[in-house]
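Field log, afternoon session.

UNIT: design team B
ACTIVITY: writing a sequence onto a fixed backbone
BACKBONE:
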């Protein structure tokens, strides 16, 4: 009898302990928290692309070249290698990069032929009348080996073309790329804008591929213009009529 009571008491104590343990580990009910209403976001306009927001400024119109500026620019590159006829010069964007370029008539300075003809000179020596251009009407063609640079003589009259840099063009001290052209100086030396040339030419198919402004002149008994091919300066003869494009 005493054993039965003891067993029942143990069962009751065990059940009470289990109830107490269960009550400790059961988390209390969490209070209900109201969710904050979503914040309204004001509508905004679609962003404008950067390319549409920021437009490059046009190169400011530069003053006409004076003889002092021309001499300083040519001397910066050629030093004492040439003498300058600063009264015979033209300006324009001949290579089509948006900066103003300079073309000026020069002569070899006395005793400087070796420097002018040097293969390591700071200028590119060319004869535009010997530049062979590909035929646009042929898919495959053989141009042959590149022509050797011409040799300048004491009696040569040359055209120095200085490509400009940035808004200041050829006046900028950073403008260094220059071409020294033989057989490229004639009469009626003029600069002509590309747009004007194209608008006034009835048959555009007769023109070479042009990148920028051209240099109109008469060389010997021929009229035509010098133009930049992207790597060289070449001479383009006008039509068989012999009438200069500049006189139209």
């Amino acid at each position: 009898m005493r054993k039965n009571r003891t067993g029942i008491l143990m069962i009751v104590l065990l059940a009470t302990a289990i109830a107490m343990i269960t009550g400790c580990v059961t988390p209390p009910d969490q209070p209900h928290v109201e969710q904050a209403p979503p914040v309204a976001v004001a509508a905004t306009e679609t962003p404008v692309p950067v390319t549409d927001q920021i437009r490059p400024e046009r190169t400011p119109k530069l003053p006409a070249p004076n003889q002092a500026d021309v001499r300083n620019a040519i001397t910066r590159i050629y030093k004492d290698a040439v003498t300058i006829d600063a009264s015979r010069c033209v300006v324009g964007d001949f290579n089509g990069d948006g900066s103003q370029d300079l073309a000026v008539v020069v002569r070899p300075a006395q005793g400087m032929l070796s420097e002018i003809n040097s293969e390591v000179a700071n200028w590119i020596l060319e004869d535009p009348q010997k530049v062979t251009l590909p035929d646009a009407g042929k898919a495959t063609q053989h141009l042959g080996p590149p022509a050797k640079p011409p040799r300048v003589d004491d009696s040569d009259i040359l055209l120095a073309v200085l490509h400009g840099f940035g808004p200041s063009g050829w006046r900028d001290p950073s403008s260094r790329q220059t071409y020294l052209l033989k057989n490229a100086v004639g009469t009626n030396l003029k600069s002509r804008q590309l747009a004007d040339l194209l608008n006034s030419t009835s048959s555009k198919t007769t023109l070479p591929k042009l990148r920028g402004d051209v240099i109109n002149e008469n060389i010997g008994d021929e009229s035509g213009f010098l133009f930049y091919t992207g790597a060289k300066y070449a001479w383009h003869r006008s039509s068989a009529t012999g009438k200069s494009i500049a006189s139209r």
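LOG NOTE: Helices lie at 2-25, 50-53, 67-78, 113-116, 194-200.
NEXT ACTIVITY: expression trials, pending approval
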